[in-house]
Amino acid sequence: MNRRSETVVNMELLALLLEGPRGPSRICQALNLNFNKFLEMAAYQESKGFIRREADGAREVYYVTDKGRDLYNKWTEFYKAFGENTYLK
């Protein structure tokens, strides 16, 4: 079985959050990620402004930003231009 590249996993995270905001546990479950790896990835994406984290009551929720949406759209355009499958989940 091939491992997903970190770039693909980052794009999968954006695609998931485009469907709606999620908490960290749901994200890890949906993307089949180790929690520590998710925290590392989320911190990187937050630092770049692609996602944001907010408190929703007693829990954290992650959202995709406009910048993250634009990046994901460019990513899918790239794959379409090369005839690749754009389904990333």
**Overall morphology:** globular
**Could you please say which CATH topology applies here?**
Arc Repressor Mutant, subunit A
Assess the beta-strand content as a share of residues: 5-15%
Helix/strand order: HHHEEH
Unreliable stretches, pLDDT < 50, 5 or more residues? Answer: none
**In angstroms, what is the radius of gyration?**
13 Å
- Looking across the biggest beta sheet, what order are the strands in? 1-2
> Which CATH architecture?
Orthogonal Bundle
| The CATH class | Mainly Alpha
How many beta strands in the DSSP annotation?
A: 2
Tally of alpha and pi helices: 4
Q: How far apart, in Å, are the first and last alpha carbons?
A: 16 Å
Helix content: 55-70%
Short descriptors:
89 residues, alpha+beta, single chain, two-stranded antiparallel ribbon, Arc Repressor Mutant, subunit A
What is the fold's blueprint, element by element?
Blueprint: H1 6-18, H2 24-31, H3 35-48, E1 51-56, E2 59-64, H4 66-81
Antiparallel strand pairs: 1-2
Helix pairs in contact: 1-4
Brief account:
The chain has 89 residues and is an alpha+beta fold. It has helices at residues 6-18, 24-31, 35-48, 66-81, and strands at residues 51-56, 59-64. Helix 1 packs across helix 4.
Q: Would you kindly provide a written description of the structure presented here, covering whatever features stand out?
A:
- By secondary structure, the chain is an alpha+beta fold.
- It has a single domain (6-81), classed as Orthogonal Bundle (Arc Repressor Mutant, subunit A), CATH 1.10.10.
- The chain has four helices and two strands; from the N terminus they run H-H-H-E-E-H.
- It has helices at 6-18, 24-31, 35-48, 66-81; strands at residues 51-56, 59-64.
- A two-stranded antiparallel ribbon has the order 1-2.
- Helix 1 packs across helix 4.
- The longest helix has 16 residues, at 66-81.
- The protein starts with 5 loop residues before the first helix and ends in an 8-residue tail after the last helix.
- The model has no long low-confidence stretch (mean pLDDT 89).
